[in-house]
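Module 6 notes. Inverse folding takes a fixed backbone as the condition and produces residue identities as the prediction. Think of it as a translation problem where the source language is geometry and the target language is the twenty amino acids. Below is one complete input and output pair. Work through it position by position during the lab.
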């Protein structure tokens, strides 16, 4: 069966070969002997990313892919000579994507060589992305509430459920900026909650909410390993974490026991903070054609569906909808209207306030 699946994958690649025919690329393996340096997130993401995207691309095109891993490539690109970048093509989340645009780290994309970009949900291309001139919306990570279903008496459906006595001292909140900003907004009276970030009064309300929540949480964690250890030990009952890792844990139990026995998740009714990854071509690269061919491949139906089923991120190609795994049925958007229910972080507004808000968070919330 594995060999058959591999054969079908290669057959799919052959069907898609025409999509790689940019001006400098001709022939059955158009990039034979060329090397492309790809930047992607680290950890399990890197392993799944290489298996789904890079290895098939190498077989299809003859290119060799080298990978670098980080959670933000912009400092390394900024410190390198403009004509000798450390990467050719890279993933960029909201904050580093905006910083990259401001510092001219990305080349404008030639969309005529990325036809699969036309398959992206229109709302992501035309409304939610801060700028698609320099990057294609690629995938989405969203915060969900994960909880111990075997220990929780009243499963949460709202962020405000964390104020119930059952959860006092048993809550974990992720530390990274600006996720905590949005968490704080969900406890305010603003409608929609994210409206709170746009005024001084609203931001004061966010800090007041986070101050109250800090008296109820077990910790504000920096690393995922801390979250999982506390959840497994029962030190916490509920916390916010990224959908891909959460769903992987739940799916493991489903495959082993036929159902999820320990963990459950919910997308709270107020929504949840989400990041939108873009894929960009790095300034100064001598592999622009190859980089755009690679972006076109990772945006294809086959590749996006494969990553959806492997890593459980939300994917931007609208043709994945018919293939959404059952475990993600209540999480993955199916229409433009569904995407509107997710709170994509407004880094254009928040990034200039990062130092001010972070300093305040440390002094008013963490140091008590």
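Target side of the pair, the amino acids:
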């Amino acid at each position: 069966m594995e060999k058959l699946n591999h054969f079908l994958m290669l057959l799919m690649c052959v069907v898609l070969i025409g999509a790689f025919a940019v001006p400098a690329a001709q022939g059955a393996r158009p990039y034979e002997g060329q090397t492309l340096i790809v930047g992607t997130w680290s950890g399990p993401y890197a392993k799944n990313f290489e298996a789904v995207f890079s290895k098939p691309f190498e077989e299809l095109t003859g290119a060799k892919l080298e990978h670098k891993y980080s959670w933000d490539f912009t400092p390394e690109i900024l410190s390198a000579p403009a004509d000798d970048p450390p990467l050719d093509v890279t993933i960029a989340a909201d904050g580093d994507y905006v910083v990259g645009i401001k510092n001219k780290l990305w080349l404008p994309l030639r969309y005529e060589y990325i036809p699969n970009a036309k398959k992206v949900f229109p709302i992501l291309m035309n409304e939610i992305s801060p700028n698609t001139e320099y990057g294609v919306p690629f995938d989405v990570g969203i915060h969900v509430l994960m909880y111990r279903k075997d220990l929780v008496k009243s499963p949460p459906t709202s962020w405000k459920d964390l104020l119930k006595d059952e959860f006092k001292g048993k809550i974990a909140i992720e530390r990274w900026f600006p996720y905590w900003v949005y968490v704080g907004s969900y406890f305010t009276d603003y409608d929609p909650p994210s409206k709170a970030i746009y005024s001084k009064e609203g931001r004061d309300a966010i800090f007041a909410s986070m101050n109250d929540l800090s008296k109820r949480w077990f910790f504000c964690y920096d690393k995922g390993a801390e979250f999982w250890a506390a959840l497994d030990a029962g030190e916490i009952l509920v916390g916010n974490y990224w959908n891909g890792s959460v769903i992987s844990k739940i799916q493991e139990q489903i495959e082993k026991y036929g159902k999820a026995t320990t963990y459950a998740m919910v997308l709270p009714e107020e929504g949840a903070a989400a990041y939108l990854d873009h894929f960009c071509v790095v300034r100064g690269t001598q592999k622009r054609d190859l980089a755009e061919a690679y972006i076109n491949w990772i945006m294809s139906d086959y590749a996006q569906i494969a990553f959806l089923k492997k890593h459980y991120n939300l994917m931007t190609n609208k043709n994945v909808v018919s293939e959404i795994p059952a475990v993600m049925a209540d999480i993955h958007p199916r229409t433009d209207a569904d995407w509107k229910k997710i709170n994509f972080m407004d880094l254009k507004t928040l990034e200039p306030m990062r130092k001010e808000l972070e300093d305040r968070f440390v002094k008013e919330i963490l140091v008590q």
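Reference fact for the lab report: The chain has 14 helices and twelve strands.
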